[in-house]
Design a protein that fits this description.
It is built from 13 helices and 14 strands. It has 392 residues and is an alpha/beta fold. It has a seven-stranded mixed beta sheet with strand order 1-9-8-5-4-2-3, with helices on both faces. Strands 10-12-14-13 form a four-stranded antiparallel beta sheet. Helix 4 links the parallel strand 2 and strand 3. Helix 7 crosses helix 8, helix 10 packs parallel to helix 13 and helix 11 crosses helix 13. The longest helix has 23 residues. It is globular. The model has no long low-confidence stretch (mean pLDDT 96).
Length: 392
């Protein structure tokens, strides 16, 4: 079978072309030039409506959204922020950029926060970022119960989870703030970009000003005039705005999201069922309240030594399917021991053990069943080769 291009995204819808051409002809790329209806402003309104949120702020990346969210919370100096030990380096980086202290929590073999360790560390922190890493939702019922009781705000890093549901509620709407990504390997593709949502007017006002709404440009954001007036000239500007061209790429993709989510879940579950037939592979099941929106698949190697896992990844890559082993890929930005910008970086033995055998494979939502079968054949063939070598 012919292998698909595992890194190709879906085409940008044709509906974007007219708007992009208009922007190219006018050169009107700055979000605050127009008096109203700039593409970024329209995107914010449409995204907020889609998510059922009062406010949305589009920015340069999900990392920027996390950073602004932390600052907008008004945490004390040197605040401590609890994050999962399994996430992308941008998450602890956002905490460090805000001059706060990352506190790392253990993660289990199912890639979700270890609630026991979370509960033990919660009294020592001022805020929490929950990373729904690779679209895997931690136990948000337990997390929100603990955080609400302690009065600790929760930011949802939903970079990988646009379209995911928890008890039917949209991920990103459970905590105080939800942050999403428009980077190319996400469900919505603008190359780069991000957006944050909240129902808190004062919080979004602070984020809007700090994002770069200098002078009175915040007046072009509806419904927050009173809150922004209160913060005028009292906050630093970080200039993390999204531009109109990126918004023009995003807007026509919003209507494609339900189909992409359905296709991604179908593809994931089809591949998961086939991979789980191998005694050397375990694809963790979703939690009961979770409806996922995946465009990749993660699985753990079972009963294999490190050399055999590396041999498996090499064999799969040689056959045309790149498998990322989070804890064995050199300088992987998702392996916590590589976050050496954190002072007094802790050891997380449970998370380290999981990452040594946790694998990741992209599954773009446009793949056909034939494509998926070809990918599965490569992965299972590579497992067979690695296990034969280990036995020998």
């Amino acid at each position: 079978m012919t292998l698909p291009d595992m890194h190709r995204a879906e085409p940008i819808p044709d509906a974007a072309r007219d708007e992009i051409e208009r922007l190219l002809q006018t050169g009107d790329l700055f979000r605050y030039t127009a008096a109203s209806d700039a593409p970024v402003s329209l995107l914010e309104a449409e995204f907020a409506q889609m998510m059922g949120s009062r406010y949305a702020l589009a920015v340069s990346s999900c990392s920027a959204a996390l950073f602004l969210s932390l600052l907008a919370l008004g945490l004390p100096k040197n605040a401590r922020v609890l994050i999962p030990g399994f996430t992308f380096a941008a998450v602890p980086s956002s905490v460090v950029h805000a001059n706060y202290i990352p506190v790392l929590c253990e993660v289990g073999d199912n890639y979700r926060i270890d609630i026991k360790d979370f509960k033990a560390k919660l009294p020592t922190v001022d805020a929490v970022i929950i990373s729904h890493m690779r679209g895997h939702t931690s136990d948000m019922d337990a997390i929100m119960t603990l955080c609400d009781a302690a009065g600790i705000p929760v930011i949802e890093d939903a970079a990988h989870s646009l379209g995911t549901l928890w008890h039917g509620k949209k991920i990103g709407k459970i905590g105080k703030i939800g942050c999403f990504s428009f980077q190319s390997y996400k469900m919505i593709n603008a190359g780069e970009g991000g957006i944050m949502i909240t129902d808190d007017a004062d919080l979004i006002a602070r984020a809007i000003i700090m994002s770069g709404a200098y002078e009175h440009n915040w007046k072009k954001h509806p419904g927050i005039a009173e809150a922004c007036t209160r913060w005028q000239n009292k906050l630093p500007l970080y200039n993390l705005r999204l531009n109109n061209l990126s918004a023009a790429l995003v807007r026509p993709q919003l209507s494609e999201l339900p189909r992409r989510v359905a296709d991604g879940l179908r593809n994931h579950d089809y591949v998961a069922a086939k991979l789980n037939t191998s005694r050397y592979i375990d694809v963790p099941a979703p939690l009961a309240p979770e409806t996922r929106a995946p465009d990749s698949i993660q699985f753990n190697m079972v009963g294999l030594e490190d050399d055999a896992i590396r041999a498996f990844a090499s064999a799969s890559a040689a056959a045309g399917v790149k498998v990322q082993v989070f804890g064995q890929s050199t300088d992987n930005a998702r392996a916590f021991w590589n976050w050496q910008f954190i002072e007094d970086l802790p050891e997380l033995p449970q998370t380290r053990r999981m990452l040594r055998s946790a694998c990741d494979v992209r599954l773009p939502v446009h793949l056909t069943q034939g494509d998926l079968d070809a990918v599965v054949d490569v992965i299972l063939g590579a497992v067979h080769a690695a296990t034969d070598a280990q036995a020998a």
